[in-house]
Amino acid sequence: MEIELKLALQPRHRAQFRRHPLLNKITPVQHPLLSIYFDTAKFDLMRRGIALRLRRVNNRWVQTLKAETQSVGALTNRPEWEVTVTDGKHPDFSALPPVALDLLAGIKLKRIMPVFTTEFQRTTWQIESEQTQAEVALDSGKIHTDDASSNICEVEIELKSGNPEFLFDVAIQLLEHVPLRVEPRSKAERGYILNGAATLVPVKAIQPMIEKNQSVGDVWNAILQAALMQLSANLPGFLENAHDTEYLHQLRVALRRLHTGARLAKSLGRPIPDWDQPLRQLMQALNPARDWDVFQQEILPEILTILESPAVNSGIDDAVLVLLQDTTAIVRQQSLAVLHKPAFTRLVLDIGRDLLSAAPAEARQQEVKTWAKAILDKRWEKLCKSCHGFAKLNASKRHKARIAAKKLRYIADAFAPIYGKRAHHFIAALSSLQNELGYTNDRVIGQQLLHKLSRKTASLGFGLGRLSGILESSAAQRAHVPADIWQRLARSKLFWR
């Protein structure tokens, strides 16, 4: 079983990394590594989450088969089988144990061929502390396919023996002197993306791995792990494809789910984790970019459709469009800068380390449902209170109702595996209310964004004023819809009772 932390490093910081106080007194070992990754023409191994490679280490070839990765934040945990073989021309399947061969059942082994290679220089340092040992590796080189290549510059901290928390201790010490960032993808995953076999896509909410007879603490831990996995899975996509606004949206969803999970600590008699405060600060820092993305991608096209309709038949000044585009680009770059900072990496590491701590195991399945019911009841009561007299609620109170609906939705999603299919109808109805309230809130925020923009000319001021007026009108026209949805939700059967 391989347990490691993987972090990315900018090439310009390699020398700084080598001089780190934690490493500069340890004699490093350097050696070049050439790895050939194998799969079928249809990438059957990749589809099963398997990586198969032959790696040349000094004058020998080492064959490695790795099963599907389980990644939580920066920590990767995956089964692997490694054996020395005679050459690097083709894998030797006879050298694999039965449990590894079972993973390949149904795949025609004769059709397995090279699909890409990695070639890099590895520098390693052995670090020990009491009964724990870890290897810090700096990898620098390239991934090659037939017609493309990509740089490798990353740090792997692999546990050799002892407590996995030591990996986080080492990573945090390294981060104090060198800017590192989270990289949840293996070299194999990046290779498959490079050769077109896999596509980087936004990752929506991940269902917590909740099983029967788990303790309350284990369920809480699983909720946080699922949110952290979603956060780390969307990070590379946003950093590399910031123009795809869905990555930022899913990042923010993951952050909100982490925050919701952190607040559950009080119901377990535990203090709210220390990392919740920097988490909230990060959420606030990313809000402007998401608000402007929603404006550009959803609200502005709707406004333009209204302006171009026969009833209005009027366009919008190009200067206004340029101002909106430039502002959106600026705040998106600001969000990118925030996620590149060591403070964000430290936050992910702190959460990951915290999740390794032993969760309390004093309660079993029935008590888990009791715990879930108490939390869901409390969230439901807050939503009912927020929605009282819904038709007469102003924009501010509807915003509070939206927040209450969102918090209940995250909790309901997290506990849904405990209750099965009977949770689906309620969650769907709750989602409809949240979406409709979100529609109205987005237009209120849109007006606020427009009011903050500089009106350097009368033409700009007039154009922005028109946009604001249309937003106010469109929100008013749908003001009755959330009230109708709320009435249906209020009559729904509560799946946890």
UniProtKB/TrEMBL annotation:
GO terms for molecular function: inorganic triphosphate phosphatase activity; metal ion binding. It comes from the Bacteria. InterPro entries: CHAD_dom, CHAD_dom_sf, CYTH-like_dom_sf, CYTH_domain, YgiF. Residues 1-198 form the CYTH domain. CDD domains: CYTH-like_Pase_CHAD (cd07756). Residues 213-491 form the CHAD domain. This is Inorganic triphosphatase YgiF, contains CYTH and CHAD domains. The lineage of its organism: Bacteria, Pseudomonadati, Pseudomonadota, Betaproteobacteria, Nitrosomonadales.
